[in-house]
Amino acid sequence: MATVAKDFSIEEKLVAVLSLQKIDSKIDELQTLKGELPMEVKDLEDDVEGLQTRINNVDAEITTINDYITSRKDAKQEAEALIAKYEKQQDNVKNSREFEAITKEIEMQNLEMRLCDKNVKDALVELQERETVKNQNLSLIEAKKEMLAQKQEELEKIIKETEKEESALAERSEAAKEKVDARLFGAYERIRQSYKNGLAVVPVLRDSCGGCFNIIPPQRQTEIMQRKKIIVCEHCGRILVDIDLNDSVQSA
Ligand SMILES: [Zn+2]
What we know:
Bound molecules: zinc ion
Strand order of the largest sheet: 2-1-4-3
CATH architecture of the largest domain: Orthogonal Bundle
Radius of gyration: 41 Å
Distance between the termini: 33 Å
Order of helices and strands: HHHEEHEEH
Mean pLDDT: 93
Number of strands: 4
CATH topology of the largest domain: Helix Hairpins
Oligomer: single chain
Number of helices: 5
CATH class of the largest domain: Mainly Alpha
Largest sheet: 4 strands, mixed
């Protein structure tokens, strides 16, 4: 009787720790699911912010160019007004020297007018280029904002959906912990923390450890199947269970 009870107890211990593992793995899965979305959302937020800064800079450049165009148009008008004034003066000159002096002034103002026209023409080309850049960035930012809204919605949905499941799993994990033998639980915690995938209890799969995939010798596999001893993988230290026991314990 005592032997039977002891044998059964090892199997029970394995079932308890395996149940805990399945629940904890489910919690890990939920974390992973959420884990990437917040990062994606953050990246998109950064992209949108960067594009907005670029658009603001281009806007500032466009304002500067427009101010310049206005100033050159004003200068042209001033030159025109001066020419009109000089032409009037020419009608009342006293000698040819005075006439020539005024003619020279008119020529100068004509040159100034042509220069103004050229400046405006060049500035308009530049303005066109800036507008093109701005429009490219505007369509980019629109696309990014759309993606961001999608990802945010996805994340909120997952958070909403998983909140309940997560707290239910946490409760079940607590309850499952209490059934695990104290020494075994210590080992479980230690192994679980030392591996990224959080697996401390693994099944034997295709003659290999389900954690590190190293081959498990037939003799050891037989011992695992007998469930009379707690057996750990000699390569990775994980607690090993046979596939039937693994499949008999469900996470949900
Ligand atoms: Zn292993």
